[in-house]
């Protein structure tokens, strides 16, 4: 199996190239072929099969298949289907659709059979990289797909920007759905007592030995494991948790001085410095954003 990293979710600039919502009869096939962009093929009703190399996967209602540029593949309809076909790019400077049709190329059955399947990974801050397999259930995206179809077909002024926004929503929907459905990794479960302690008492000046003891590990091993699972040191994670709660308190109308005290800061100056390091804004500037 090959793996390919799609980048960090917050850095994406996705572009819809084409979307269709239509039907296909038994025996309809696309491929073997290669496409120039990424595709999500989502089955509303009926059945289909997708082939990657010598592996093939069944698609039923609510399932989708996902693959990227130049990946040999073949789609075959097994029962009459109603489906969405979305072609897109994860990263493109322009949101204006570029129809992929003229860049789709046929490939031979031999090329298809020689291909080793590619799995994709999306980087999510504070999480392990999200695995996006070739086929997965994704009923959550159907409403997003319909909205994208309507915007794509109507081409109202500014439609390209709206398409980018809707596609971003769709991607976020996939991410949330897959994160919610996957079990916590064994490694993350090992540090769960520390994560719950920080979340429950962010005002406490937790030390690494205290957090390591909660999990039953040596300080060095715990610190390494914590960074691997969260992407941050225990100290930085604690600061981020404090600032996350500080945002809520600020938007609820509390004064910065009270928030600093509530979250365990010895001075408003230290709180303000942490807040700006995390958000790029002072507490006062952040509060003004809601206006």
UniProtKB/TrEMBL annotation:
SMART domains, alphabetized: HTH_ARAC (SM00342)
Q: Which segments constitute the HTH araC/xylS-type domain?
A: 192-289
Q: Which UniProt keywords apply?
A: DNA-binding, Transcription, Transcription regulation
Q: Name one Pfam family in it.
A: AraC_binding
Designated name of the protein: Helix-turn-helix domain-containing protein
């Amino acid at each position: 199996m090959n793996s390919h990293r799609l980048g960090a979710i917050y850095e994406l600039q996705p572009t819809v190239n084409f979307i269709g919502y239509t039907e296909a009869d038994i025996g309809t096939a696309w491929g073997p072929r290669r496409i120039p962009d990424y595709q999500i093929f989502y089955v509303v009703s009926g059945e289909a099969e997708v082939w990657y190399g010598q592996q093939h996967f069944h698609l039923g209602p609510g399932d989708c298949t996902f693959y990227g540029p130049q990946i040999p593949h073949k789609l075959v309809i097994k029962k009459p289907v109603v489906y969405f076909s979305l072609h897109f790019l994860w990263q493109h400077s322009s949101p204006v659709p570029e129809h992929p049709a003229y860049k789709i190329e046929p490939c031979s059955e031999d090329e298809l059979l020689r291909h080793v399947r590619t799995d994709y990974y999306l980087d999510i801050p504070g999480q392990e990289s999200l695995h996006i397999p070739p086929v997965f259930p994704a009923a959550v995206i159907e409403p997003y797909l319909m909205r994208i179809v309507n915007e794509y077909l109507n081409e109202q002024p500014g439609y390209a920007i709206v398409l980018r926004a809707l596609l971003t929503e769709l991607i976020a929907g996939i991410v949330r759905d897959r994160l919610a459905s996957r079990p916590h990794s064994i490694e993350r479960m090992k540090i769960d007592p520390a994560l719950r302690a920080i979340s429950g008492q962010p005002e406490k000046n937790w030390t690494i030995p205290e957090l390591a003891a909660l999990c039953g590990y040596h300080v060095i091993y715990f610190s390494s494991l914590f960074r691997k699972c969260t992407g941050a040191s225990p100290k930085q994670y604690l600061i981020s948790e404090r600032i996350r709660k500080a945002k809520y308190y600020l938007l609820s109308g509390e004064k910065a001085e009270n928030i600093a005290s509530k979250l365990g800061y010895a001075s408003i100056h230290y709180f303000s410095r942490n807040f700006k390091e995390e958000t790029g804004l002072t507490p006062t500037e952040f509060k003004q954003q809601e206006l």
